[in-house]
Structures are given as structure tokens and as C-alpha cells.
Specification:
About 50% of the residues lie in helices and about 10% in strands. It is mainly alpha-helical. It folds into 2 domains: about 5-150, no CATH class; about 160-260, minor pseudopilin epsh fold (3-Layer(bab) Sandwich), CATH 3.55.40. It has a 3-stranded antiparallel β-sheet with strand order 2-1-3. Strand 1 and strand 2 (about 200-210) form a beta hairpin. Helix 1 packs parallel to helix 2 (about 90-115), helix 1 packs antiparallel against helix 3 and helix 5 packs antiparallel against helix 6 (about 240-245). The radius of gyration is 21 Å and the shape is globular. It starts with 6 loop residues before the first helix and ends with a helix. The relative contact order is 0.12.
Length: about 260
Amino acid sequence: MAGYPCIESVEKEKAVHHQADHELANKGKQRRHFFRASIAFLGVSVLHASGATTPKETGLSFEGLLKDKPGFQPRRPAPLPVKEIPDFLSSQQLRGHYKVYRDVFEELLTAEQALRVASRDAAHAEAYAVLRERQVRAANAVLLHELYFRNLAVHPVEPPRFVLANISEHMGTMATWREDFRAGARVAGEWVTLVYDPYDDRWHNLPLADSNAGVMIGTNPLVVCDVAEHAWSHDYGDRESYIERFLEHVDWTTVAKRYRAVDRH
């Protein structure tokens, strides 16, 4: 019938999405297996000979910028804030993305468990360096995912005057900020962020090559967008379309709270 897709095309599209979801799940399983195996090997190879106590890797859940929030700080996975966002992200897209977050959370816990028994002596420096690098990458990925999920708005949110005033001061106009953010999103490997740098007291849009690169030391994330394929490929055919919809679903109330928490004035 004119105006309606044929049954064959609908079923074909469903099969494509199912296959993509299946491949993503398999990649996650393979990644977790490899990570646990390699961490186990490293942990065994760098076990403390002296039994000396190592520094704690986690903070207290009632202190810091993330106090009273599940997730990164208390090292307990945070729940997905929303199951779907109509006209932006489907439940299948968010569910698949959340699985990626849980995978990297497990990698963080595994790395830190190995670090608790890792030798700090010179003879095991190479293995220790691998553990630290994996810890940092996983920690950044966990934190960025949590910041991303929490700054998604189910319905469009108007930026408070407080935010608009700072956008004007640091970025020019909202249109200027959006265009610069889009430019960062096009070239970013995995993430694009709006950050506050307390050292120069400015806001900056920064593309991140991966979870361990591209960030100015000491900056505080205000807006975080995941641009890796796992964040959008189920619902969108290209990154540009996804970014346009993301810009319509930034929770500016959350952004304002983040800045108030770190503003030095």
C-alpha cells in the first residue's frame, strides 16, 4: 500500500538492529574476558612481596563533588536515570549504552582490586604502569558516562539566566557556543565537553580523543556528550543528526548546579 513500508523492509531493518545489538553485546563480553584475564595475570605478576599496605583508591561517599550520588565515588554502579527520551534516544539505544558503562565500571573495579596487591618496586614497574593506565582510562570512562547520563533532559530545558550570562562572558552567544560545540563533536574520538577551567577562569569546549586524553588538567565538566558510535548508532545514521538532537536535550539546570559547585567567585 502506498505510504507504508513493506513487511520485508521492516523485518530487514529489525534484523539489522538485532544483529548490531548482538555484535555490541559480544564485543562487550570479549572485552571483559580479555580485561579480567590480563588484569589477573598482571596482579599475580606484581603481588606484594612485603605485604605492605597500599594507598586507598576510593573516596568517601559523603564528601566531594559527587557526595550522596551512586556511581563513581562510592564505587557502586549508578542506575540509568531514564529508560528512554522520546524524539531523542530509544530505550534500546540507552539500554545498550548503559551496558557499556557497566562494562567499564567492572574494568575499574578489577584494575583497582589488582592495584591493592600490586608491587611498587622497580622490578615490577612496567606491570604497575599498565595497571595504572587501565585504572585511569576506566575511571575517566565511568565518570564521563555518569556525567553524560545525568545531563540528559527528557524535555527541552531553557538555560537559566545564570548560565546565559556565563555563556555570554566566556563563549560569546549561545549560537556561538553551539557552533563551537558542534565543531568539537565532529572531530572528537569519543567525547565532547564544555568544561570550566579554574586556572584561567574560563569555559572551554574540548573534544576528547578517548577516555584518557584531551582534557586540560584541573578542569571541571559542565556539559558532557558521548559521541562514540555506541551512544547513537542504534537510533541515528550519522553523528551530526545525533548531536543536533543532543543540543536540544541538555539539562541546563544540571549544568548550572555543576558550575555553582566549582565556581571560585
